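Try it yourself: sequence plus zinc ion, in.
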Amino acid sequence: MCFINKLIKGVLLRGREPLVTCDSCGRKIPRNKAVVYEKVIAISTDDARTPGAVKFFEKKKVYYCVSCAKHRGIFEKKKEAAIKAKRF
Ligand SMILES: [Zn+2]
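Structure, out:
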């Protein structure tokens, strides 16, 4: 086993996870407790229905605290995505 890896896992990071900010309420939560969700952001130069409009999609990693995730239905969305990924 790698000594440095053991050192990092065992000594340096013990009991201290880096804090992330909840995207909804702004609460500071440890990263292992946060719910990670990939939000899709669509940017368009024009109205999306007009032909010739340049569309751009981007995935942004968003952190939520558990109560916000439950309120926003993130767990249901994640479950649906997992079922979809299993099917195909
Ligand atoms: Zn929150």
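One thing you can check immediately is this: The pocket of zinc ion is lined by residues 22, 24-25, 27, 64-65, 68 (CB under 6 Å).
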